[in-house]
């Protein structure tokens, strides 16, 4: 791991065999982090291709802090675009609602920068880092998973069988493996669940700049967010302002076809979006878009567990926290998951500790994940309020909270009353959280714990261990 902090480079004294199912960003990042902790990691991915690109990934301060800690700051300085300002506009009439400038004082409080990176570059980076760290890769489909209290057996459609000390499920928003952790089919009524259309696109800035009004509001250092009745539409400019990236999340009320629940490049007109619902500049920008990467997502509830009953399967990424694309913690939480696993499993010195260590991961991550996912869902609903008095009241409140535009002149109490939880999300330090947990509970972790009975006699919550076999052949 490229780092100048020798304490962060500690490796485990026992090398575990770990299989990661899912070769997207969350899987690559988790595999890289666990390999850096000293373990033998294999990624199983269904198709032989690098992660798909869906525009731009946001790296909020809590994510940037970890990437810097991993020694990646020079690369971020070269490849990422710093967000200098958040600009919020009324999506229907274009009126300015408010702006917040991320000046030095503001960033000092947040400890790290808010960055934008091309998703393709982020995927390429972690693909290369994982390969350099010695992570193995297998192209196959998982056909069967069996767990015991001591290991996991993974059968693949190519006839290969992998034996793992534990398995990391990073198979995305529609994860079929979540039920291996919950122990039963999820009770999820699609008829009443909210559905959203998510789409992203990239446009050359030269094309956008031909429209003088668009050019005047497309500052590469600005994160421009339009929101209105049933939609959030935001833009940023990666690649030094050479391209404009757009992402939209909107309510979806039509019948959902099976093929619409997969990311696919489609003409924008396929979705029948009413462009007249947007303010003139946003409408003109969307009229320049021909093809979007898009899909429909049915909102999924938070899961109550991150680790299976046998304490051999653990969820990370969208499988653990089904957060909607385009939101600023979409990748950030996956990076936090990986850092927590790295910090915990760099301390292991006996295979008999795996169950306790995975329980520690769940203790540490589950409250954080639940809080962020619920906050994100609440924020989406607030920004997508329908036209009417509630929306007007929201706009006034947001405008007042950002009325001065910079940290020096901000009414701190008023700002934190509206954005305090957002700041708490940004200032979270996943590494420190593990260290704090370890200071409190680590001395109670058995040096060579016994199974079930003795392990559960400690004050640290440990999951029950029972045999669970998932025979499905279509995973």
From TrEMBL:
Q: Which SUPFAM superfamilies match?
A: FAD/NAD(P)-binding domain (SSF51905)
Q: What is the top-level taxon of the source organism?
A: Eukaryota
**Which InterPro entries does the protein's record reference?**
FAD-bd, FAD-dep_Monooxygenase_BioMet, FAD/NAD-bd_sf
Any one GO molecular-function label of the UniProt entry: monooxygenase activity
The residue ranges crossing the membrane are 12-34
Q: What Pfam families has UniProt attached to this entry?
A: FAD_binding_3
Sorted keywords for this record are:
FAD, Flavoprotein, Membrane, Monooxygenase, Oxidoreductase, Transmembrane, Transmembrane helix
Q: Where is the FAD-binding domain?
A: 17-191
Q: Does the keyword Flavoprotein apply?
A: yes
Q: Which family does it belong to?
A: Belongs to the paxM FAD-dependent monooxygenase family.
- Identify this protein by name: FAD-binding domain-containing protein
């Amino acid at each position: 791991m490229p780092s100048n902090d020798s304490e962060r480079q500690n490796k485990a004294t026992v090398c575990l065999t770990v299989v990661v199912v899912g070769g997207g960003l969350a899987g690559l990042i988790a595999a890289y982090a666990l390999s850096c902790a000293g373990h033998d990691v294999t990624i199983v991915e269904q198709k032989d291709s690098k992660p798909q690109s869906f525009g731009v990934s946001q790296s909020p301060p809590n994510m940037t802090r970890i990437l810097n800690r991993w020694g990646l700051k020079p690369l971020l300085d070269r490849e990422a675009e710093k967000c200098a300002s958040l600009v919020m506009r009324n999506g229907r009439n274009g009126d300015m609602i408010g702006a917040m400038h991320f000046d030095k004082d503001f960033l000092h409080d947040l400890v790290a920068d808010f960055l934008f990176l091309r998703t393709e570059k982020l995927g390429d980076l972690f693909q290369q880092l994982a390969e350099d760290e010695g992570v193995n890769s297998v192209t196959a489909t998982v056909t069967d998973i069996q767990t015991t209290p001591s290991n996991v057996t993974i059968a693949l459609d190519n006839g290969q069988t992998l034996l793992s000390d534990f398995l990391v499920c990073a198979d995305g928003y529609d994860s079929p493996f979540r039920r291996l952790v919950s122990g039963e089919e999820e009770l999820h009524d699609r008829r009443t669940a909210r559905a959203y259309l998510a789409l992203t696109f990239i446009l050359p800035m030269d094309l956008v700049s031909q429209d003088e009004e668009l050019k005047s509001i497309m500052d590469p250092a600005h994160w421009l967010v339009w929101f209105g009745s049933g939609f959030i539409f935001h833009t940023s400019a990666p690649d030094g302002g050479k391209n404009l990236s757009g992402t939209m999340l909107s309510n979806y009320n039509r019948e959902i076809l099976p093929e619409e629940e997969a990311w696919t490049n489609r003409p924008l007109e396929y979705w029948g979006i009413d462009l007249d619902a947007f303010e003139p500049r946003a409408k003109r920008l969307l009229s320049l878009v021909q093809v979007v990467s898009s899909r429909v997502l049915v909102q999924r509830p938070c899961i109550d567990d991150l680790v299976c009953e046998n304490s051999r399967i653990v969820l990370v990424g969208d499988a653990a926290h089904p957060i909607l694309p385009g939101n600023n913690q979409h990748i950030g939480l996956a990076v936090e998951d990986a850092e927590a696993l790295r910090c915990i499993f760099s301390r292991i010195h006996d295979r008999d500790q795996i169950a306790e260590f995975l329980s520690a991961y769940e203790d540490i991550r589950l409250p954080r994940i639940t809080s962020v996912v619920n906050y994100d869902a609440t924020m989406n609903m607030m920004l997508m309020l329908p036209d009417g008095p509630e929306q007007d009241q929201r706009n006034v409140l947001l405008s007042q909270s950002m009325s001065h535009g910079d940290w020096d002149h901000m009414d701190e109490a008023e700002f934190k009353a509206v954005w305090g939880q957002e700041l708490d999300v940004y200032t979270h330090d996943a590494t420190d959280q593990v260290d704090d947990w370890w200071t409190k509970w680590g001395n109670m972790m058995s040096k060579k714990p016994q199974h079930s009975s003795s392990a559960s006699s400690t004050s640290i919550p440990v999951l029950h261990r029972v045999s669970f076999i998932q025979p499905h052949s279509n995973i």
